[in-house]
Here is the input.
Amino acid sequence: MTYNTNFNYQKTFPKDSKQKAAFISKSSWWTPLWKGLAVEPTAKHFKTMGSAVWLYLYLLTFANRTTGNLFRRISTIANDTGLSNRTISRWLKILKDGSYIEVRQTGRSLQISITKWKPIKKR
Here is the structure.
């Protein structure tokens, strides 16, 4: 199977902008993902998260590597992912109810903490 890795930046970001540069640098980032999320005979994570797994992957990608915390507005997540604010809010509730994250309002943004975060150890 062949995947098309060409991304049309001009369509997505018509002007050469900081937003385009930020997207390019972010798109090459990686995130730790422990196999227990994907490999589970009872499919408990799939049953609990459903489509909210996409938000969980986003949160894992942008979380502080040491603490598992990040600060984001719902609108920022929506803009980054191309989803609606309502979808992000619904998915945050699913992840919170499933004990995957803890959310605290800080005034302007949300402090989101990944529960059971395992920091990456330096070698």
User: Anything to note?
Assistant: The beta strands are 69-72, 101-105, 110-114.
